[in-house]
Amino acid sequence: MIWKYIASLALMLPFTAPAYADGSYGKLGTLPHGEYICSIPGDAAAAAWIALPGKNFTIDNASTYHTEAGSGTYLMTGSNIVFTRGPMNGMRFQKTGSQTLRWIDNKGNLSRVRCIRRAGSL
Fold first, then answer.
1. DSSP state of 108
2. What is the pLDDT of residues 43-94, one digit of tens each?
3. Whole-prediction pTM value?
4. Are the C-beta atoms of 40 and 49 separated by less than 8 Å?
5. How far is CA 12 from each of CA 7, 8, 19, 54, rounded to the nearest angstrom?
6. How does 97-116 read in b/e, with b if 16+ C-beta sit within 10 Å?
7. What fold is seen in the domain 21-117?
């Protein structure tokens, strides 16, 4: 009887591995608190970065955020962030620096949009 139990556990082991074996997901975490300003690259003849009004957000305590349109929650695993409730629901970002996020488009590619935590934030 015990051998059947051990055999069934051995069969289940391959299914307990992380869903993303490439290491793209990791430990749960939270973003540094403060205001994040979102922009796209400009060009050499004008501004280096072009602000995206209405796209900024503020990370509050725990895993919450707020925008001009309301508040919600996000989930951070490793360097990946997905907004799970609120006005940014479904948006995904990748943390590319200690204060920098890059938006991930619908095809799963890093877009040109970056969000930088404003200096002097909480």
1. S
2. 888 888 899 989 999 999 989 999 999 999 999 999 999 999 999 999 999 9
3. 0.75
4. yes
5. 9, 6, 14, 47
6. eebebbbbeeeeeeeebbbe
7. Lipocalin (2.40.128)
